Amino acid sequence: MGPNFLDNSFFRNIYCNLSESDDIRCSGGGWLGDGLLPGGFEWLAFLITAIVMAMVLINLVLGSVLIFIWAERRLLGRFQSRSGPNRWGPYGTLTPVADAIKTLFKEDIVPTAADRWVFNAAPIIMMVPAMMVLAVIPWGTGTFLADLNIGILFIIAITSLSTFAIVMAGWGSQNRYAMFGAMRAVAMLISYEIPMALSLIGVLMLAGSLSLVSVVNAQDVPFILVQPLGFLVFFIASVAEINRAPFDVAEAESELGAGYHSDYSGMKFGLFVNAEFMATILSAAVIVAVFLSGGRGWDFIPSQGWFIIKMVPVLFFIVWTRASWPRLRIDQILTFAWKGLIILAFINVAVSAILSFVWPDPSTAELWLMAAINFGVLIVSVLAVGSWFGPGTAGTPKMAHGDSLPRPRPAGQPSGGDS
Amino acid sequence: MTLKSEPVIVNVGPQHPSTHGVMRLRVAFDGELVTDAEMIIGYLHRGSEKLAEERTFTQVVTLTDRMDYVASMTNNQAYILAVEKLAGIEPTPRGVWLRMISAELQRIASHLIAIGFLMQDLGAMGTPLMYTMREREDILDLFELLCGARITNSYHRPSGVFQDAPADFWPRLEAFLAEMPGRIDEYEQLISGNEIILSRMRGVGIISPDEMINASITGPMLRAGGVDWDLRHRQPYEYYDRVEFDRPIMDESDNYSRYLVRVYEMRESLKIVRQCIDQIEPGPARDPDVPFVIRPPKGDAYVPIEGPKGELGFYLVSDGGISPYRCKVRPPSLINLTLLREMLIGLPMAAMIVTFGTVDINMGEVDR
Q1: Looking at the complex, does the CB of residue B206 fall below 8 Å from at least one CB of chain A?
Q2: A333 and A259 share a domain?
Q3: Are residues A154 and A91 in the same domain?
Q4: Residue at A419 is within a domain
Q5: Which residues of B touch A396 (CB under 8 A)?
Q6: What are the DSSP E strand ranges found in B234-345?
Q7: Are residues A184 and A210 in the same domain?
Q8: Which burial class, exposed, middle or buried, applies to A416 when counting CB atoms under 10 A from its CB (0-12, 13-18, 19+)?
């Protein structure tokens, strides 16, 4: 058992009630006295506690998926000048429940041509990484399942597993649309993992640790201010990683029907949708932990509350983007990653390296100074890199009035009179 | 060494979110690029032209509604103009003005559909579509006041329209005219300068004006290729020679210009409606002496009009009976599709869908 599990207050409360652990953090036992289980059964206490914690955490996030689905649909309704779901429950709050029940009762169809094992395994594999990432997120002071000392690396490694699920779904369906979606998803997810990982290096230099708890503790000034360029790159890359607009090419509904999950029905489809919404919530959670100082805030709200309050604007922004922007083409997305984001991420790494060489152990005042320098770097580098992609201007047609305009001639031919 | 792979044949449609109906494209893909495309149409064929031979001249109006079902008024107009030419009927002035008002409103509604669904094809999550549908709803409400129907209007009749506009139509129309320019500016803010839209639509789906003229492509698609061809200006029908309007022309002939020409045409249509309201004169909305069952003399007639999608015309042949001996439609949707293969080859899949969207077809009109 890793000793840092006991830093989690919820974990400690359950575990210390059960076991006769002589750990100093368990001194005095739990509320029920010292140790319900006899000595030597610490492993059983740990197992029970871990299962309970995992159940609680996963169900909390699944519940928040329902809330997020409702909120997104209401918000999209508002953005699109309509009311959104409003039939089931007050303000339509029960609509996702109705959707979930409907999805459960739908017939589960496996296409005849499908590769059954791959087809059936894909939705499960899609859910696993989303659930595993839950473990390392510090939801508040002392509220985390595991304070891994490689936390950020763990997140990057585990989230890339969802690529396998997408490929399996596309390949297993034996459907060309699904295959197109899967191929696009692979190309995109692999490309965006690089800027995503690079953008976090600046944060690691400042925090001096890969553990998310240490990263949160290092944020006397939120890293969104100290690392604005890193935040920008990370935010764009994580929107791409979770397959949401404007990077939703993998399931581009106007081109591919539903992309890689075209052939899925019933709860398997539900699992894909669930995993995608979970990924959205988790990416917002990672952004809050890494860039928005996690659960830190004034004392009148508990730290878990601060964490959730900070997640709301991030999720709102993701929904807002989805409501207002069209989709990019896959080649443009890849160009943007390789020629834009990676360069920005490298600039950020270089500047952060210099700054952390100058101030190896920055005080709060030095962090603010870094923030000012980094904002300058952000503006200059984004303008420089952005100028390659070119700011486009809206066109204007010629307005023909009265007499007819001459007919256009192909190049090289003498222009005669009006035909 | 280059690795050659087998092309992937994909059936885009007839059940596909972006084929604007039951269009089917058999597309060969090399990776994401289109190497060949074959258009398969006819899934919505209802034999309207043959059915027209069994109905009286006035009854055929209801069939024309169902051809281009997002632009019923202009279909009515094209058909009625051919009937009037065939039978030598003189329409009443008020009827003509009402026809022009309804046709121009219909042009705006059709372009709204074109733009909204084009944005849907671009993956814009329905927001521009909802906005354009909101304005189309206003236009359909106006049509409801005019004739009681919203989509299948059957409003036009030989010698005018079947009833005069009710009194509360005019203030509603004024309110619409006052509101609509701001709404069009809103689309332009949301769409026209958007970096993603520009990068996806500029320079994509180019087709040269000469090819378009050879394929007899008409409408906004041709005008986006720099050809100043608008039948309202070239061969004014009804009272289009009495109204002032500009014709937006663009030279790029790409997807973006086809989109932008439609946006500017909506503004011009609003101007035309404004002038129609100013010039409309009192009087009967149709000539009560024209009988319901017309027996035109032997002969034929064809009147092309500028429909929202291009040149729309009905070629009618009469043998002196109560129904057309032959009714042949010149559908702009079908003819504008003829160059689709040339436009699509070499484009990526996403651009293929968008290019298809900018042609602005309606399957009811393609298959009839």
Answers
A1: no
A2: yes
A3: no
A4: no
A5: 260
A6: 247-249, 299-306, 311-318, 326-330
A7: yes
A8: exposed
* Residue burial B129-146, b: 16+ Cβ < 10 Å; e: rest: bbbbbebbebbbebbebb
- Taking CB atoms and an 8 Å cutoff, what residues of chain B touch A253? 17, 123
A74 in a structural domain:
yes
Contact B77, B65 (CB under 8 A): no
Peptide bond into B14 cis (omega under 30): yes
- Domain containing A225: what range? 111-389
Residues A164, A84, single domain; the answer is no
Nearest CA in chain A to B119: A326
The total of other beta-carbon atoms located within 10 Å of residue B62's CB is: 15
Per-block average pLDDT, block size 10, for chain B (368 residues)?
Answer: 77 80 86 86 87 88 88 90 89 90 91 89 83 90 89 88 88 90 86 84 86 88 87 87 87 88 90 90 84 87 90 90 89 88 86 87 86
User: Looking at the domain that runs over B8-367, which CATH code has it been given?
Assistant: 1.10.645.10
Q: Which residue of B has its CA nearest to A177?
A: B10
Residue B240 token pair: 């289009």
- In this prediction the pTM is 0.85
Out of A176, A248, A254, whose CB is closest to B17? A254
Q: Is A339 on the interface with B (CB under 8 A)?
A: no
Considering only CB atoms, A254 lies closest to which of B123, B134, B257, namely B123
| Mutation choice for B interface testing from A254, A256, A339 by most B CBs within 10 A | A254
- Which residue in B125, B227, B257 is closest to A408 by CB distance? B227
Domain boundaries defined on chain B: 8-367
Q: What total of structural domains would you count in chain A?
A: 2
In sequence order, what DSSP letters do the residues of B77-117 get, joined into one string?
HHHHHHHHHHHTPPPPHHHHHHHHHHHHHHHHHHHHHHHHH
Using the structure block, give the residue that is written with the tokens 């990672």. Answer: A286
| Residue A82 and residue A172 in one domain | no
